[in-house]
Amino acid sequence: MHDVYIFNTMGRNIQLFKPLHEGSVGFYGCGPTVYNYAHIGNLRTYIFEDTLVRMLKRFGYEVTHVMNITDVGHLSSDDDTGEDKMLKSARERGQSVLEIAQFYTDAFFRDTERLNIQQPKIICKATDHIQDMIELIKRIEANGYTYFAGGNLYFDVSKFDRYGELAGLQLDQLKAGARVELDPNKRNPFDFVLWFTKSKFDKQALLWESPWGIGYPGWHIECSAMSMKYLGEQFDIHAGGVDHIAVHHTNEIAQSEAATGHKWVNYWMHAEFLVIDKGKMSKSSGSFLTLESLIDRGYDPLDYRYFCLGGHYRSQLSFSWEGLDQAKSARLSLVDKVLALKEKVAKPAALSELGEKALQYRSAFDEALADDLAMPRAMAQVWNLLKDNDVPAQDALALILDMDEVLGLDLAKAQRKEVSVDPETLQWINSQIERRAAAKKARDFATADAIRSELIAKGIQLEDRPEGTVWRLHE
RNA sequence: GGCGCCGUACCCAAGUGGUAAGGGAGAGGUCUGCAAAACCUUUAUACAUCGGUUCGAUUCCGAUCGGCGCCUCCA
């Protein structure tokens, strides 16, 4: 097992990762609220989490990855003035909440699959765990951390000493929320709702019985309840986007530890934003790009995955079409190199028999991974390996495929796109190639070049190799 | 108003107290009838600005300018 260092938001420094149970990792990643499509900024975070899990597995850990699906309780604001996002979406589209949730859940996993993101071991829906949430809230209440006001059960942050530690919040800066419309029921602006029974919006189907009345859970409680259910009352790593630090995760910590009386999560990891036009991508600002829209523009989802691998997860990454083009070129080049290696050697070397040079690259690659998931440095090693002519081809192939277990670029399955061309076109192309070969033989280069031009105009690029002419689709 | 982050070549992006990884793009070359592909070489004399600490700073400290994020739903 390899030592792994990660940046812990709690403490804001890089720490040696020590799992609760040797050899295994309990990992909870905040999942999507399924009221709309995920945009590529959201997807960056899931690519990060996937890379993290792959890295831990590479170093010998057994990872139990849990992800929630938020299909209720996530309000458009954190007091009772907000409307539930799911209900709002359902109302606007004239569909049931169930239909909306299912539709966008499917869309989400279709995206993650196309990005070669491995499915979490456990995927849990909030609506399937209402009872777990109620039980947890009862514990919080029994421990004296709650109060009931205006029909809702609130968490009283003043009762929790360490409130705000994750984000470095200071409770005495209450006026910080001056811009926000305050919920008059709250004793403290940072208090948050555990259970709603009252809201000005029509709740219809999404209501459950509870000790506090018929209603629905606050947003934060689902992550506490479900993570504890599947990972235990204390577990190793909890990850999400940086936007969750100050509110969502801060509140999760407060309620979780208020319920159990002990520490909940050991390491907090947060992915920075994808920014576009000097701002984060968001559903409201109009800068909303889905994976589908990238595909429509001719990109492979893995181009985007490669793009994300180019920046460190704790740094904002600037998205631009030019940047995506660059990632696409680089990825295609990588695929070409792997294909060339595959053509060169019958089969890759066994990892246990790698030569010294290859082992050096492997070691440097692993060092980068183990140093807070430094993917840009890891990628540099990939390229250094591929450029080094002193590494035997079978070693290089074995190692690049080994590295790809973490990169997730699907290099093992890499193949030339040309295989998808229909037989008729194929026959035509081959006949053109034969005509050109004949012209070349007769030293009629004008005709030969004309044929080549005609093909390139149709997106077919010829390559004269020593063993004969081959072609490829040209983009 | 409070808290935090960032500013590295044409673009994306690492990194270090002792003068800068990698990728894309560009340039030159080898090969080729010519291309393409491949390969080779090449592309940052002040790493935003101004001070300070230091033998020495891009890397540490302070200020300034610019950008971003969170504090409000948000990955």
Structural class: alpha/beta
CATH topology of the largest domain: Rossmann fold
Continuous helix count: 14
Largest sheet: 5 strands, parallel
- Percentage of residues assigned to helices: 40-55%
Could you name the CATH class of the largest domain? Alpha Beta
> How many structural units, i.e. domains?
3
By DSSP, the count of extended strands is 16
Mean of all residue-level pLDDT scores: 89
Strand-residue proportion: 15-25%
Gap between N and C termini:
43 Å
Low-pLDDT stretches: 174-179
CATH H-level name of the largest domain... which superfamily? Answer: HUPs
Strand order, largest beta sheet: 5-4-3-10-11
State the shape. Answer: elongated
Order of helices and strands: EEEHEHHEHEEEEHEHEEEHHEHHHHHHEE
Q: Supply the CATH architecture of the largest domain.
A: 3-Layer(aba) Sandwich
What is the alpha-carbon Rg in Å?
27 Å
